[in-house]
Amino acid sequence: MACKGPLESYPPPDKRKSPRISHEFLKRTRQRVIRKSAEKTNFIGSQVNLVIRNNISNKIDSLTTFHNRHSKSPNINIAAEWIMNELKQFDNNVTYHEYVQGNHQLRNVVYHKQGATDKILLFCAHYDTILNTRREDIDARAPGANDNASGVCSLLEISRIISKLDFELSLRFVFFSGEEQGLWGSTHYAEAIKERNEDLYAVINMDMCAEPGFLSTNRTTYVDIDDGSTGLVTTNNEPSQKLGEKMEQMAIDYVPGLNVDYDPIDASDYMPFEARGYVCIGAYDGSAVSENSHYHSETDLLSNLDVELLTSVTKMVLAFALTEGKVKDS
Ligand SMILES: [Zn+2]
Question: Could you list which residues have their CB under 5 Å from ion ligand 1?
């Protein structure tokens, strides 16, 4: 992950090589995050109850009917239009962030919800797909249900709910292309944030969130944190760990039955933000492993997902958005 000119270049992300979290961190965290917090509110609980499981599964169904969403195929910009239209159903403040990578004119889709301040809490997920066996094949079927319609459709459901609320912070939802080629969309976008000198408080990435069977229980999600074993910058490590603990607290407070384990941030769209010093965390189901035959394959389909698990993760991330974004209760 060396820097090459203004944009560093990342290899195609392969989460199968990810390092595991240190036991020291887990020991410290477990002493802090053990019970319901005093800040838990009925208002946030009521908003969390508005998450509709069928909204999530219906959208995954639609997104996986694209033959593929390969970033070098014409499908990718049609998928971007689909995401934009979904967002415009509840708010008009949706734009494309256009970028050029090699011969490819690509788009990130951006929904901005202005708060009382310009401080930004950014949620992101990539919408492109790829096959491990034929990475350059733009005609092959690559449905990408878990990777990463799961993250996209979870954030669409969260966007729907937050669009009706008022916040102290500004909330931004960004949907990236080019992730599977080497974090293209997120690298361009993180650079744009830096160039515009925007006040970016934290990045929450969702990439593969709906396939259980690879963690300690079938009701467990990873919260990815910057534990120092990955990434380039050290000043953002501890703030990331604190935010990760806050994310776990959201599960304890608002999502009974959802268990959190920790994992280092790696091989996904938060890394270009991390490299610019921003504070990053993520949600991830641990399923990008060689034993998972659906990973980057034709069988990454809705029928192999646990939408109930994804609904729980969606509620956790929504509660985090409401709490950290300082939602106005009225
Ligand atoms: Zn992915």
Answer: 147-148, 207
